[in-house]
Amino acid sequence: MRLTVSEAAKRAGVSVRTLHYYDEIGLLKPSETSQAGYRFYDDMAMAALQQILFYRELDVPLEQIGRILNAPDNDRTEALQKHRTLLLMKRRRLDDMLRLVDETIGGMTMYDERPKPTQADWEAVKEQYAREAAERWGNTEAFLESREKHAKYTPEQEAQINAEMEEIFQAFGACDDPEGESAQALVKRWQGHITQYHYNCTDGILACLGEMYVNDPRFRENLDKYGPGTAEKMSRAIAAYCKK
Q1: pLDDT tens digits for 158-195?
Q2: Which of 5, 150, 215, 218 has CB 3.0 to 4.6 Å from 21, enough for a Cys bridge?
Q3: Distance, CA of 156 to CA of 158 (rounded, Å)
Q4: Is residue 80 exposed (0-12), middle (13-18) or buried (19+ Cβ within 10 Å)?
Q5: Other C-beta atoms within 10 Å of 141: how many?
Q6: Contact 157, 196 (CB under 8 A)
Q7: How many CB atoms lie within 10 A of CB 34?
């Protein structure tokens, strides 16, 4: 198999910009680059991409994913099988939701009648895989610091942390000038929030997060729920902040 970057992106369900970003940070290099600069991806590269998407589903940071892919004990087949399990569960959950919608509007569409996994089932499997990844590769300073802090939080504290996070995101969504003083103050507040409640967010980590917000479709989709273009605003604001 020899796919262009657009073909590889379409097959994996990510954006071309995401693949370019993974190439830039050294997470996933194309298997071949032509003299004209065109990127091509073979079977091995696509398998590696599937691994990356699996660990992103578990909210593993990109830096940590790079360590996992390069680890001597990394089992590619095992990761792909687990990714397949998550995807099947997600598909069956969606089928069940579609059935309920059709029943509500009087549709007659037929679906697989086998027991469907619930949201709790899917979250439990996802948590299990995340725990396994943490046990095997969760040895970065940021990962350990974040895990240690969250282990001490009460449900009320977690809710307060999430509320503060959403307040910051909403403020970015309403921001008109990503490079203006108010936006720069928001970036400083966001960096402080991460450092206080999760891990020490250095300027280098903050810059990487800013890139991730626009290059990872899932980050962009979640952030843009706080207003069209929120991810882009945050990325631009962080880039301006880190240049100062």
Answers
A1: 888 888 988 999 999 999 999 999 999 999 999 999 88
A2: 215
A3: 5
A4: middle
A5: 9
A6: no
A7: 10
Q: Which amino acid is at 74?
A: N
Single pTM value for the model: 0.47
Distance (Å) of CA 199 to CA 98, 136, 160, 192, 202: 40, 20, 17, 10, 9
**Per the structure block, which two tokens stand in for 168?**
């910051």
The tokens of 60 are what? 């593993």
